[in-house]
Description:
- The structure holds 2 protein chains of 2 kinds.
- Chain A starts with 9 loop residues before the first helix and ends in a 9-residue tail after the last helix.
- Helices cover 77% and strands 0% of the residues of chain A.
- Chain A contains 9 helices and no strands.
- The radius of gyration of chain A is 21 Å and the shape is elongated.
- By secondary structure, chain A is mainly α.
- Chain B is α/β, with parallel strands linked by helices.
- Chain B folds into 2 domains: 2-246, Rossmann fold (3-Layer(aba) Sandwich), CATH 3.40.50; 251-337, CBS-domain (Roll).
- Chain B contains 13 helices and 17 strands.
- Chain B has helices at residues 41-48, 71-76, 93-97, 99-103, 108-121, 138-150, 168-185, 196-202, 221-226, 231-237, 241-245, 298-307, 328-337; strands spanning 2-10, 16-25, 30-34, 56-61, 64-65, 78-82, 156-160, 188-193, 205-210, 214-219, 262-263, 266-270, 276-281, 284-286, 290-291, 312-316, 322-327.
- A 6-stranded mixed beta sheet of chain B has the order 6-7-8-3-9-10, sandwiched between helices.
- In chain B, helix 5 crosses helix 6 (138-150) and helix 12 (298-307) runs antiparallel to helix 13 (328-337).
- The longest helix of chain B has 18 residues, at 168-185.
- Classes of the chains: A mainly alpha, B alpha/beta.
- The A-B interface holds A 114, 116-127, 135, 138-139, 141, 212-215, 218 and B 49, 51, 71-76, 78, 80, 82-92, 99-100, 103, 132-134, 145, 148, 158.
Amino acid sequence: MLDGEPLVRWRWLGDHLGYLAGLTGDHAVIALVPVLIGLLLALPLGLACTRWPRLYQPLAAVFNVVYALPSLAVFVVLIPYTGLATRETVMVPLTFYALAVLLPTTVDGLRAVPEPVRQAATAMGYGPWHRLAAVELPSAVPYLIAGLRVAAVSSISLAAIGALIGRGGLGYLFVDGFQRTFPTPILAGIVLVALLALVCDLVLVAARRLLAPWAAGVAR
Amino acid sequence: MIRFEGAAKRHPDGTVAVRGLDLEVPAGRTTVLVGPSGCGKTTILRMVNRMVVPTGGRVLLDGTDVATLPAAQLRRGIGYVIQQAGLFPHRRVIDNVATVPRLLGWDRKRARARAAELLELVGLPPETARRYPAQLSGGQQQRVGVARALAADPPVLLMDEPFSAVDPLVRAGLQEELLRLQAELGKTVLFVTHDIEEAVRLGDRVVVLREHGEIAQLADPHTLLTAPADAGVAAFLGRDRGLRGLGLRPAAEVPLAKLEPAYDGWQLTLDPEGRPVHWVHGGRSHPVPVFDPARDTLRSALDAAVLAPSGHAVAVDADGRAVGAASRAAVVAALAESAAPSPQAGAGAQVNHA
Lengths: 220, 354
């Protein structure tokens, strides 16, 4: 850090508001679209795993291995296919990470329906698929949202690493500030990443209140 | 009417749950299957709605083999109540109760109106309708379970240990409620329990089972308690079955005498309405054990006679006014009077179903 350089140059912030907003939007897309796609993939996969339980262990193992791969390495491997500094190069691995979190929570949620509830549903004349849609899926909502909260926050944090290959939304502020030994963008990046994560989390909590008002205290 | 014809269930691993049951369950009555755990009673119950498919024999519902009916259609016509209620946690109480009508294609408004009627029928206050199951007590959840089973007005009700998971006081309340409901609705009820007390209280007919679903005895509760078929049944019935049998006979069998001014120095004080207040003797006073000949059982009359310091049970009418008295000797004489099966009085307000 340069002597005499203040921690925050308010002037710089004021001059770059549009730039910061643009990076935040880019970051949100790069980080959250994969979570949505992950959710859309996790639902059918989770349903399949409940119907055919033998599927679950191998699938979970595959996604755990993927989750263990360092994100930077995966970005580099993908560059020849999806290009340097493209959104896709960052979003594809993030989708897999999101899926690795969401698949187990989906399966847990679908399995969380107590046996008596399942039996009562059958005894009232629900067929297996109808029951899945009317009983198991709604019961899984609190679990799904709990999974989404973890997946969204981790995706927002991982997306910043994309800056190292040229597409990381707010992550670019860290690279920039570090290279220029200029702390203001770094601090702005930290605050904005944290704010983005916080807003996402609040939205998801509100969604749970709305979609599963019965679930107070069922799953976090 | 439900009829089991050699209905058997053998599991894939070769163990036999039910060897081959022949049983008729009459329409409009309560038939209780009672036996130790593992005797196959739940398996038998589930054969009716095809939750269990027999590996031998068949089950007829009003003359039709249930195996020939589509499962969903069959089940929507049969109410089913289980031990933990099995309410849908994500649906409000009213929508839980409206489930089967909705499955049958009723519109939401009509289904909810019906559900509200049923909540009232099972004695739940209207404000419970908007709650979620987790916000109710165990006893309330069971009531909702019963309401849900009755919602589409099915002629047949299957109940699998529905009251076993609640505490004894709540259980007694639920049993009384079921007797009242059944007197009103006259469903064909098949009820499973391991509790012989519950069986004789609720059943018009009690089927005592031993292992593999074999019938040890099939009888009305009074016959069962007074004339068990063999030592095994007698052991299952427990020690004070004679005394418990009195709980099935109406207190009206006790002849009443006019109230005397005093018995051995014990005087009965009455309030202005004529309701008993105290037994008084010198400086001592004692609460007054009473029975209502129109509603109580011989067991209550005997209990009142045993507890009364004067040795006389006071009979009261529905408003609690004293209408007569019965000495211990008179009660005991009534006990000995008739061992013949009598119309079941049950505790509370059960009426004769015949």
